[in-house]
Amino acid sequence: MTATLYGIPLSHPVITARLALERKGVPYRERTLLVGAHPLLLAAAGFRPTTVPALRLEGQRIQGTLAITRALEAVVPAPPLFPDEPAARAAVEAAERWGEETFQPIPRRLIRRTLVLSHAQRRWFAETAMPLPAPDAVALALAPTARLFARLAHSSAGSTAADLAALDEHLGHVDGLIADGVIGGGEVNAADCQIAPTVRMLLAFADLRDRVEAHAPATALARRLVPDYPDIPAALPG
Ligand SMILES: N[C@@H](CCC(=O)N[C@@H](CS)C(=O)NCC(=O)O)C(=O)O
User: Fold this and answer.
1) CA separation (Å) from 28 to 2, 125, 155?
2) The domain 86-225 is classified under which CATH number: 1.20.1050, 1.10.1760, 1.10.8, 1.10.3470?
3) pLDDT tens digit string along 37-53?
4) Which residues belong to CATH 1.20.1050 in the chain?
5) Ligand 1 surroundings by CB, under 6 angstroms
6) Whose CA is nearest to atom 8 of ligand 1?
7) DSSP state of 62
8) Which pTM value belongs to this model?
């Protein structure tokens, strides 16, 4: 079996899909789409023109991290991404859902805000995530796209202030899930795959590193499951 994963650079949900594929031992090739054009490129590959990750698996087209973990579990039951025991399974499913609905959007909203606010940040993004020459020119051209993608993610001055205010509470929730044994065990489960990449991306923000590192269990899990992620320069409003 060979799967094809469609993604874009820096996307933490794409890392979620990679972790799930790796847990299942499913070999896959990766199609890296041009950021900004990715909804159209997804449509050209037969997916909805919305979000990555998207996966072709055994003739199926699957889109979204929650759908991907379930499809992988159905096609390749072992090793499991969800525990068998009903209470443990419910806890992992709830943690995965919280990770996708509440936690995953936070670094997306934050980075999109920085891309709206700062030319230097768009230049960094062009160099790091776009295989195009002339990053200064790309950074200029990216300004309207950055505003569009910020709107799509409901990213604004208000969302940024709210996300920064709630950060410690969310990271505390991750520490609690680890203490309760829902995530962070020896066997990687679907909630680990969902939550660790979000912590890892938050850790990459130069503006946030100290606050994230104050949550040692969450930080250790993120660094264990996602050793590499590019540093994101400081650009969040003070
Ligand atoms: N929550 C979904 C969505 C993932 C998502 O929003 N992916 C972003 C990249 S991090 C994307 O493709 N965004 C395109 C857009 O905002 O139009 C999932 O877990 O798969």
Assistant:
1) 5, 26, 32
2) 1.20.1050
3) 999 999 999 999 999 99
4) 86-225
5) 11, 13, 39, 51-53, 64-65, 100, 104, 108, 149, 152-153
6) 51
7) E
8) 0.97
